[in-house]
Every structure is written in structure tokens, then in C-alpha cells.
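User: I've been going back and forth on whether these two constructs are worth ordering. Before I decide, could you fold them both?

Assistant: Sure. I'll take them in the order you sent them. The first construct and its C-alpha cells:
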Amino acid sequence: MKAISTVLLAFLLFNEAAWSQQRRTKTNLEDEAEEYSSITTYGITTNTNSGLLGGLVVRHSTRLENELFGRAQYRYLAMELVNVRHPKELAQSSNTGSRFTPGKQNYLFVLRPQYGREIILSNRSNDEGISINGIVAFGASLGILKPYYIQYQVRPGVVKTEAYDPMKHTDLGNILGAGNILQGLGKSKIVPGVNAKIAFSFELSAFRSNLTGLEVGFLTELFSKAPVIIPFAENRSLFTSGYVTLFFGNKK
């Protein structure tokens, strides 16, 4: 929640700066509602199941001819790659000062293709204001369960980088730190699932067709089986999270 508050504060400060710039450059053109056929954005996301940087997001919305409840609507497509953490994860420092997570056996990365609808709730003029959109989307979840590697001192002066094994690496004092996050990627296991989300998008067009904004929402995700992140803790197959995505992009 501290991470989400930090992102929200940064967004509000950016909005204030952008609005000040718009007021200085505003012309006497008549206000007109913005109408674009497509929107493409790229962003970073954080959520209640991750650290400050939860993952990366690409979104693309295409305007549809028919309206929904009298409001303009877009076909919403998104692709997310996020890191999902176990609630019991707590990193600590080793004797060497390096960081590692005791008991962690696997990373859980999730690739989420999503499809849905984005509806214009409150439009803006060409020169000022914020556009507020509602989003409903769902899709598949491709869970990538990758081994967590540690640097383990097998005997004085001999350190090996190995996949964490709770039955083998019993002495936390011999764990000198975590291995490279990409180590063991080829030994990953796939856990399929599904996800659904509901969100609100707050868009600010700082420079006409360019935009920045926030997507704030709630996501539910269900895997076919419980991904084992920490062996000696309760591992669940159903995850829920609140999230914030800070995005940048353009309209056409």
C-alpha cells in the first residue's frame, strides 16, 4: 500500500505540472471533445502482491462503432508481465550484507493477455481536464514458476549457486545471498490459469495526442493448481489484488 500511495502522489504532482504548462500555452480555440480511433500505451505496475515494481504492461484500445449505454466504447487489449510474491515473503540480509528471502523456493512470474471493453465515462476538452474511462477485462494467465537460486557456502571458502532446497539448505547462516533472477529460467514450470479485472483509467493528454495516466483497479486470478512459492507455508491457487499502473502513450 505504501508503494501504491507513492505512485499516486507522483502522478498527482505530474498532473499539476502538466496542467500548468497547458495553461501557459492554451490558445483561444473552442473546446471540443476528443475523439480518437486508437490508443496505445506502455506502463509499469505495482500491486498488493508485489514489490514497488510489480511488472510491465502494454495496452491497446480501438474505438468501436456502436455505443454502450449511450457512451463511446473501445475494444481493450492488454499484455502484462508481473511478479507475484507470497504474503510470507520477507527479505533479510545475509552475513555478507547481500539480500535473500528465507524459505523461498520459486519465483512466480505471470504473463496475462487480456481482452475486454473500455468505456468513456467522462471525456475532456482538447486543452484541459482528465478523461475517466471504465475497464472490464479478462484473459488467460500463464504462470511461470522459476526456481529461486541462492549462493550457499557448502564449506569454508567454497560457495555454490544452487536452486534453493529446504531439505538441503537448512543452515541460514550459510546462505550468502540470492542468485541472479534469470538463473534457472530453462527449468521453469508452467501453471495455467485465468484472470479478470475491473478498473478505472484516468488519462491526461499533456501534449495533444500524447498522454499519461493511471489505471487503478482490482484483479482476481485463479490457477489450475497452487503454485509453490514457499514450501513450508500455505500456497494458494486463488489470488486477489488491488493495483495501480502508471502509463504513457499516444492517441491516433
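The second construct, handled the same way:
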Amino acid sequence: MAISQEISYRLERMILDGGLAPEQKIPSERQLAERLRVSRSVIREALHELQGRGVIETRHGKGSFVSTMVPGSADLREQGPLMHLFEGHPRTLYDLLEVREQLEGQAAFLAAQRATSIDRHRIAKAFRALEETDPISNARPDHGFHLAIVEASHNPILVHVLNSLKNMMLMTVQASVANLNPRAEMRKKIVLQHRQLYEAVISGKPASAQKVAMAHVRFVSKAMRDMEKEGSTLIRIPVEQEGQDSQRGTHD
């Protein structure tokens, strides 16, 4: 790896770890060169690389700033800066699963309280689609099932936040499907968790729905962490490729 690529990777880690926040001004080339102990030309090259990927943006006369990671009105199918960080930094998968655990847990709680007859019909339809799809490649139906529950929460802010992260969340589902579903024991547990979530929401049990939703995402996260600890390399499928795979199946 070239030195400039190493530096761009380290800067990305600073962004992911919160050392550099969205919209924050990047330190000057001289300051970064001193801090990272490399030449200013290396810093310039690294910043140029990050700018090309949309991770930072340069404002005329003001300097370079960390980009907004999740613009509110972006085309959700775009390869935004967060998507690039997801692909380049393994830890981001678990950061996303932490977000899913909290938000989907709350969504399940509200859906169990607020779902209308139409919502319950949509959730049931999404659950049937999930059950009828090959579990080895069912990422999109899996995602669709969770999304139907989110929409039944009738909290527009929660729906908007999760929709703005749609592709990011889908990638966590793809990772779960690709790595866990081929293992019969894991697959059985995930199928059971989905059924428990479905039944808790449909029967209007908020506390149970929240508990099951959060436990499901925690299970997925721990299972993949354990795989990595055992020496396995996780399979990561970019969203655009999964569209082709969805002809064979779909989500977590």
C-alpha cells in the first residue's frame, strides 16, 4: 500500500472514530503532516484521494471539510461516502449493527402498538415472502420484512432515518445471509427469531417485539464476530451485485 493510501485510511479511521466529525474542518496540510509524520505532498495526495471518494469536500477559500455522511435528500442507490467507508473498514459493519439494534428495536415496539390492519397485512405479506425465498440468498425479502415493521411504527422521523440508511442496512443483512445462513444451525435460529418477531408485532406485544428485534440483531453481530475470531473472512456483497443474487434469493 502506498504511503498516501495508508494516510487516507488513517484519516478515514479518525472520521469513523469521531476524531473528525461531519462538517468539521480538516486540519491544515502542515498540521496533518506534523501530526502523522509524513511530508505535505503525501498529505495532499491522501486528501485528494478522499475528496475523489466524497469523504471530504474542499470549499473555496475555506479549506477542506468532512462531508455530510448521510445527506437527507440523496439518491439512496448512490455509492455515498459511508458506503465506501463500509467497504474499506471492517469494523463499520458492527457499527451499523449497533444502530440497527437500537432503531429496529424501537420500531418493533411502536409497530406492535400502532400497526393498523393494513400494516399487519403488509407485514404478513413480507414475512411470507421471506419464508418462501431460498434462505441462502434471501437478503432483500429479509430486509423487506424488517422495513415493513419500521413503516408500521408510524414515526416519520424513525422511518426517514432508516430509509436514509437503506443501502447501509441492506448490506448488513447481506452480510448476515451470506455468512450465517449457509450454516444450518445459524439458519434455524434466524428463522425462529424472525417468526418470534412477526408474532410479537402482529399480536400487539410491544415489549416482547422490542426484546426479540434487539436480540436478533445482537445474535447476528455476535455470530459474525465469532466467525472472525475463529479466522474466517467475512463475505461482503455490494448492493449492486446483490440485485443479481436476489434472483436466487434475499435479507437478515
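Notes on the second construct follow. The mean pLDDT is 85. The two ends are 34 Å apart (CA to CA).
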